[in-house]
Amino acid sequence: MAKGHWLLKSEPEVYPFSQLLADGKTTWDGVRNPTARNHLGAMAVGDRVLFYHSHTKEVVGIASVTRSAFPDPTADDPRWLAVELAAQEPLPAPVSLDEIKADPAFAKLGLVTQGRLSVMPVEPVEYERILGMARANARPGKAAAAAASSRSPGTKSRYPGRGRRG
């Protein structure tokens, strides 16, 4: 069975990828956009997730879905959903939004067409292309900048998803 591919955005000052790596897993909650909620509802265990830092505008890591959609524990309405994510690995180097926008292969990617949406599907070919760009960016001379970028400071929270917006 084919696995899905997704991109999730987080503000690095709220919950950076480095914090997900430290935590191992987290509940991805706090999404309040109906389209983003529907995308959370479509996620399945084992789906791959690109982790995007919204303020620095770069894809920085890979996670996977370890628990499919369930009612968001931070919401009063059970129609809002959350999923559980596990950290997989940081990308060898970040891939910037500018790099993605400059590549015509991403013309239909939600990150380009629906820039404010925090949860979006990614086609398998787009997912693999972003991973390839990260490997290319990690060539000697670029690795130090990539490592510094993935070490964004984080804050501990009982509900790490708070502050994420759909």
Report on the structure:
- The protein has 166 residues and is α+β, with helices and mostly antiparallel strands.
- The protein is 28% helix and 30% strand.
- The protein has helices at 17-23, 34-42, 97-102, 110-113, 124-137, 143-149, and strands spanning 5-10, 25-28, 48-53, 58-71, 81-96, 119-121.
- The protein has a 6-stranded mixed beta sheet with strand order 2-5-4-3-1-6, sandwiched between helices.
- The protein is globular and about 45 Å long.
- It starts with a strand and ends in a 17-residue tail after the last helix.
- The relative contact order is 0.27.
Structural class: alpha+beta
Extract low-pLDDT stretches.
143-166
Ends apart, CA distance between termini: 28 Å
* Whole-angstrom Rg: 15 Å
Total strands? 6
- Beta-strand content bin: 25-35%
Largest sheet: 6 strands, mixed
Number of helices: 6
* Mean pLDDT value: 88
Overall geometry: globular
The spatial strand order of the largest sheet comes to: 2-5-4-3-1-6
* H/E topology pattern: EHEHEEEHHEHH
Helical content, roughly? 25-40%
What is this structure's SSE topology?
Elements: E1 5-10, H1 17-23, E2 25-28, H2 34-42, E3 48-53, E4 58-71, E5 81-96, H3 97-102, H4 110-113, E6 119-121, H5 124-137, H6 143-149
Parallel strand pairs: 1-3
Antiparallel strand pairs: 1-6, 2-5, 3-4, 4-5
What keyword list fits this structure?
166 residues; six-stranded mixed β-sheet; 28% helix; 6 helices; alpha+beta
Please give a quick description of this structure.
By secondary structure, the protein is of the alpha+beta class. Helix content is 28%, strand content 30%.
